[in-house]
Structure formats: structure tokens, C-alpha cells
Amino acid sequence: MQPLYRERISMKNPAHFCAVGFGSGLIPFMPGTFGSLAALPLLLAADLLNAWQFATVTTIICLAGIYICGKTAEDMQVHDHGSIVWDEVAGMFVTFLLIPISLPNLAVGFVIFRFYDILKPWPIGMVDKRLHGGIGIMLDDVLAGLMACLTLQLFNMNWPLSLPA
């Protein structure tokens, strides 16, 4: 028997399909981790973009996520249900702003992002608790992505994971 929330979403609805990370958020355990993993092929494809294009795509993903996540949460009648993972996809894109895409960077950035997303240190935890709707669902992961990006930048300054192009 499927949980009631699952009956309220449709994989034919583009907002729902994106919100659940193309289906990755429907995996019954660790949906946020699988949602973050779903971002990896997109990040590899985005490696073809220059820095401005990547920043533009990241901004679009984040802004669209406010609607996508808010609409899906409203339709599910559950705020920020675990299966909603578009925010993790956006957070992963934020993590790699101005970071060279390489397999080592992807691996380390993934771990750092998940660390911040799971532990939710200040101010991430505060935002997660106080904001609701699409903006609340998205903003804590965008902040986790920013913190992960800064951490990965510092990491690369001391232990470069990519050779300069």
C-alpha cells in the first residue's frame, strides 16, 4: 500500500517530476542523498558551459525550484516532504559555482554538500525551521550549497583536486 502523499503527485506533472528529482526522491531511504546524486549527470553536462552560463543555469534552477517545490508540497499537503529533492539538485549546482567540474571535485563537493545539508549548522538550521513554502524548502539547501562551495574553494586552495585548464 502506497502512502497517501504519493497518490497526490503525478510523474506526468512536470513540477512533480522535477521536484522528486526525476524519480530519485521516491527511493524509500536517503532520498536527499539520491536527489543529490541525480544532480551529478546534470553537473557533468553543465561542464560544457562557461562560468556565466553555469551561474545563469544555477540561478534558474534555484528560482524555478521555489515554484516547483512549493507547488509539489502544496499538492502533497506536506511541507518539505523527503521525496521533494529539487532543492538538493539546486544545492549541488550552487556547490559548484566557480569550481572546476572534475570527478575528484564532484566526489568531495558531494560529501561536503551532504554534510551541511544533513547537519544544518547555523544559519541553515534556522532558515529550515523558520521559512515555509517553496522559498523555505529551497533556501536551506541553497545556503548549504554556498557553504559547501566556500569549503570546496578552501579545500582546493590547499589540496587542488583539478589541474588548471
TrEMBL record:
Documented EC number(s): 3.1.3.27
Keyword set, alphabetical order: Cell inner membrane, Cell membrane, Hydrolase, Lipid degradation, Lipid metabolism, Magnesium, Membrane, Metal-binding, Phospholipid degradation, Phospholipid metabolism, Transmembrane, Transmembrane helix
Biological process, per Gene Ontology: phosphatidylglycerol biosynthetic process; phospholipid catabolic process
Single Gene Ontology MF annotation: phosphatidylglycerophosphatase activity
Its membrane topology: Multi-pass membrane protein
Gene Ontology CC, one term: plasma membrane
CDD domains in UniProt: PgpA
Pfam families for the chain: PgpA
Protein's job: Lipid phosphatase which dephosphorylates phosphatidylglycerophosphate (PGP) to phosphatidylglycerol (PG).
Name of the molecule in the record: Phosphatidylglycerophosphatase A
Organism: Alteromonas pelagimontana
